[in-house]
Structures are given as C-alpha cells and as structure tokens.
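Please decode residue identities from the backbone states below.
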C-alpha cells in the first residue's frame, strides 16, 4: 500500500547534516536499494549510519515505471513508490542522509575519510553502493540530440512522445519493460537489438510480441543519429550483411546495459577490467573495512532483490568489522 507520508527525494539546500564533531560508524556511498537496505540493517544493528547520495534517493529504480519481480508485490509496484517506502523505513530508524559527490575515500588508522565535495567525513567503515549509469551507444549524434530525441529514461520522457514513432535499443529486461511502457504514448515502438534473440525474461518477451504497437528490428545496430532541431532518423547497420539503411523515428530510448560508478575509488580498491568491484564472500573489498553492495559488484545478476540482499550482508559485515576493530 502507498505510504501516506510524503517523502522528500530531492535534496534541499541544508542537505548536509553532519557536523565536524559528528561520529559516524558506517558511511554508505549511494542511496539506491543496496544503500538504503545497508542503512536499514546498519541502523537496526545500533550503528550511526550516514548515506551520501549524489542525486536522487532510490537511484535508477526510481525512474522505473513498474517492478514485477520484487517479492511481496503480486501486482507489481512502481519503482518510485518502492524506493520511497525504503527511504521512509530508513529515516524512521534514524539513518541520516547527505547530498554531494564523493571524490575519494582514504583509509586511515582505525577510520576512513570520505571526501564529499568540499567536506571530509570520518567513519569506522564504508559501504560503496554507488550503482551504475546507463551505457551510451557511442555513436555520432547521440550527445548532440540528448534531450532532443535521445533519452535513457522512459518514465521521465515517455509522455513527450504521444502518437510518435520511437525506437528502443536493447534486448534485456529493461529494454522490453520500457518498450511496453512507451506503448502508452507512442503510436509505434521499434525494438532494435543487435542479435536475433532477446535476453529478456520469456514472460516479458511474450507480452511484447503480443503488443500490436511493438515491432522488432533484429541483427541491427545504430551507426548514427541525425536530425535538425530534434531526431528525425537513424542510420542502422545490419550486423550480418553489413548493409546500412536509414530508419525514420522521432525518438530513441537506450537500454544497452550500464557502467559502474567506481571512478572515485579505482585507486584505492581492486576492480575488474570493466570497473566493477571485486569482493570476498562477506562483500569486503581488497581494503579491510571498505565493503561494496549492489550494481557496483563484480557479479552475474544485477536486480533490485540482489541489491537489497547485498546491502544487508555488507551492513552485517561492516558491523562485525567495527566491533572487531574496537
């Protein structure tokens, strides 16, 4: 059921609430499902917890129209509603929040110093739950037309494409979920995928195939995005024949995966070649006292339910570390 309390998700001017004398036990970088769950479990364990978020509590999940695979919601739940309930639970337990960009984390003697914009925050342990951002196509015209026909968020921009012809790039769950959502507005939704088979769950695929507004463009990649003031067409290459053709469209929504937000920590802990964080079974990184959770992890499945599980385990491991270091 929706919470009656109106939850503030956007930062206010007085967002930084930590004084120089504050003693933080656990600092969590990132306020998505992994970070919020870590905050909840940390607070329940008696730790003073601070979550630092650079943008919006809830992360990418907040812009997801409908989540149907999170346990406990048989009819699904809107991403924003789910994360608002997580936030409300964390706040009720005393978890504090702060907005800003984390630029560095320095290990010290019995503590860690996290640099947030022009501030320094000390804590006994750190959990990195900074999530991931949407990957770009990396083609000509993509940056130029961002916000003018190129989007990475169907919930944010879908209503602008009423009765339009749009294209969704990708073949995973996110791409098909958002393609289905976009049929609420668009006259036609073309799903362009570089292979001839989707990676999305079978249930989503069947739903998309049954939707009269959705059409599939197989074995294809975008080479260039063109237009005048807004997107009007894309240059598409057939991955098998290598032939190019122009396809008319009014907008492009990109869902081809994500890149981890780990630039700020790359010189401190070990990452894999793709930039994801390597941990042990307790989610501890290569630096004792620094843990990781959620989409930043080097793992196979990145879902809300796994992010929440990671947050719980990371918080428990951080508690054990703190108690052992006293």
């Amino acid at each position: 059921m929706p919470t009656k309390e109106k939850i503030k998700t956007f930062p206010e001017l007085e967002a930084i609430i930590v004084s120089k004398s504050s003693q933080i036990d656990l600092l969590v970088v990132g306020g998505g499902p992994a970070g919020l769950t870590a905050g909840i479990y940390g607070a329940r364990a008696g730790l003073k917890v601070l979550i630092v978020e650079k943008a919006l509590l809830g992360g990418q999940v907040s812009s997801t129209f409908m989540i149907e695979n999170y346990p406990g919601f048989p009819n699904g739940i809107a991403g924003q509603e789910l994360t608002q309930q997580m936030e409300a639970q964390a706040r009720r337990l005393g978890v504090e929040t702060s907005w800003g960009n984390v630029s560095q984390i320095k290990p010290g003697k019995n503590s860690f110093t996290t640099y947030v914009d022009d501030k320094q925050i000390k804590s006994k342990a750190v959990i990195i739950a900074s999530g991931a951002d949407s990957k770009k196509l990396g083609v000509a015209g993509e940056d130029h037309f961002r916000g003018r026909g190129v989007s990475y968020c169907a919930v944010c921009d879908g209503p602008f494409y009423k009765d339009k012809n749009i294209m969704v790039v990708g073949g995973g769950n996110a791409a098909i979920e958002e393609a289905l959502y976009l049929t609420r507005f668009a006259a036609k939704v073309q799903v362009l995928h570089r292979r001839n088979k989707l990676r999305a769950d079978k249930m989503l695929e069947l739903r998309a195939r049954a939707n009269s507004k959705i059409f599939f463009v197989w074995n294809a990649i975008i080479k260039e995005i063109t237009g005048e003031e807004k997107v009007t067409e894309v240059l598409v290459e057939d991955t098998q024949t290598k032939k190019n053709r122009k396809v008319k469209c009014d907008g492009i929504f990109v869902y081809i995966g994500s890149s981890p937000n780990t630039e700020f920590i790359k010189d401190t802990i070990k990452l894999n070649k793709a930039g994801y964080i390597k941990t042990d079974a307790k989610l501890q990184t290569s630096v004792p006292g620094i843990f990781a959770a959620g989409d930043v992890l080097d793992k196979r499945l990145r879902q809300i339910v796994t992010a929440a599980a990671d947050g719980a385990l990371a918080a428990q491991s951080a508690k054990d570390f703190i108690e052992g270091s006293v």
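Observation: The CA atoms of residues 135 and 258 lie 5 Å apart.
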